[in-house]
Write a structure and sequence with these properties.
The chain has 5 helices and 4 strands, in the order ααβββαβαα. The protein has about 140 residues and is α+β, with helices and mostly antiparallel strands. Helix 3 links the parallel strand 3 and strand 4.
């Protein structure tokens, strides 16, 4: 059984942002400090990447541990488990399909886990910066 009421759980889930989350803002700020210019939440690209470098053909996705089913950190609510298992599976299937789409388009589409970003964005910023330098406009 869930430790909070059904109404409270619904309230909690509704409060989760789909854009400008803490982890997105952390990475955006870190990329900006490095002088990297990007677009955010580009709706015309598959999967609506969190960050995109259009001229470099790079679409960056930040995957939260809960919504994308991190094996180390995803803790499903105790109530309505069948729903959550199916929901997370659909998210993972969609992620795989989006990745394939970018591969077909000859784009890079790196995915980074929330837990890696929250430990410190430096490593992720370094990887992204290297990618942008390696890709021709």
């Amino acid at each position: 059984m869930d430790v909070v009421s059904k109404q409270k759980r619904s309230e909690i889930m509704r409060a989760i942002k789909s854009r400008d989350s803490n982890m997105e803002m952390l990475l955006q700020k870190s990329l900006s400090k490095q002088g990297l210019r990007y677009r955010k939440n580009v709706t015309r690209l598959p999967g609506k990447p969190d960050i995109a470098f259009i001229s470099k053909r790079i679409a960056v996705f930040l995957d939260s541990c809960f919504w994308h089913g991190c094996k180390r950190h995803c803790r499903l609510p105790a109530s309505n488990r069948k729903y959550w298992i199916a929901k997370i599976k659909c998210n993972k299937d969609r992620d795989r399909a989006v990745n394939k789409g970018y591969k077909v388009m000859s784009w890079k589409a790196p995915r980074f886990w929330e837990h890696d970003l929250m430990r410190g964005p430096e490593g992720i910023v370094k990887k992204i910066k290297t990618m942008t330098e390696d890709r021709k406009s």
